[in-house]
Amino acid sequence: MPHKMISIALTFLAGVLLTAAVLRSQMPSVGPQWEYAVVTGSGAKAFICYGASYGCKNDEVGSNDSVMAAATKLGDKGWELASATESFDRNPTRILYFKRLKSVINKSEDRR
């Protein structure tokens, strides 16, 4: 009798493990998904480019320190500064790269 109980228990456990393995293999193994934005500007004008599958969705910000105003606008919406560069041509331009995790809340948000 004890051997029969052990045999039933092992069969049940094997069935559970097999079911878990099959279900796990069918689940998508997607890591975190990010969305990106870039702030480009100098002086009184800055542009925010929200990354999209078709390219950029642009937003213009104009104020005394437009790059900082654009960065603040993104920061208030959960964007994180990932990198920054500056060009030293005739018109020095700052470029700020932002990212944030995609989520249900962010997908329904109007970015402007």
Structural description of this entry:
This protein has two domains: 1-30; 34-107, 2-Layer Sandwich (Gtp Cyclohydrolase I Feedback Regulatory Protein, Chain: K), CATH 3.30.1410. The protein is α+β, with helices and mostly antiparallel strands. Helix content is 36%, strand content 38%. The protein has a five-stranded antiparallel beta sheet, covered by helices on one side. It contains three helices and five strands, in the order αβββαββα.
Kindly estimate the percentage of residues that lie in beta strands according to DSSP: 35-45%
* Estimated helix fraction: 25-40%
Count of the domains: 2
CA gyration radius, whole angstroms? 25 Å
Topology, please?
Blueprint: H1 2-26, E1 34-42, E2 45-52, E3 55-62, H2 66-76, E4 80-87, E5 93-101, H3 104-107
Antiparallel strand pairs: 1-2, 1-5, 2-3, 4-5
How do you describe this structure in short?
The chain has helices spanning 2-26, 66-76, 104-107; strands at 34-42, 45-52, 55-62, 80-87, 93-101. It has 112 residues and is α+β, with helices and mostly antiparallel strands. A 5-stranded antiparallel β-sheet has the order 3-2-1-5-4, with helices on one face.
